[in-house]
Amino acid sequence: METVEEAISSAVEAIQRGDLGQGRSTLSWVVREDPNNRLAWVWLAACVEEDEARDECYRRASHVKV
């Protein structure tokens, strides 16, 4: 099984090659496993189509305490 970090890396690669569905699916898993992962929320915002969903991802990222 992948670690959260490996999953994010895999998702970013998928997004960069244009496979937004795979990126979204992987990042959805990541934020379920680690809801305080700011990087995952920001990348997830990059691959959702709806404005409301994108805004929610950015909102979640901005509320993560570092």
Name the CATH superfamily assignment: Tetratricopeptide repeat domain
Helix content: over 70%
- Name the beta content range: under 5%
Number of strands: 0
Whole-number tally of structural domains = 1
- How many H/I helical runs? 4
Structural class: mainly alpha
**Which CATH architecture?**
Alpha Horseshoe
Identify low-pLDDT runs. Answer: none
Order of helices and strands: HHHH
Estimate the mean pLDDT confidence. Answer: 95
Which CATH first-tier class would you pick?
A: Mainly Alpha
**CATH topological fold name:** Serine Threonine Protein Phosphatase 5, Tetratricopeptide repeat
Gap between N and C termini: 26 Å
Radius of gyration: 11 Å
Q: What does the main sheet amount to?
A: none
What best-fitting shape do the alpha-carbon axes yield?
Answer: globular
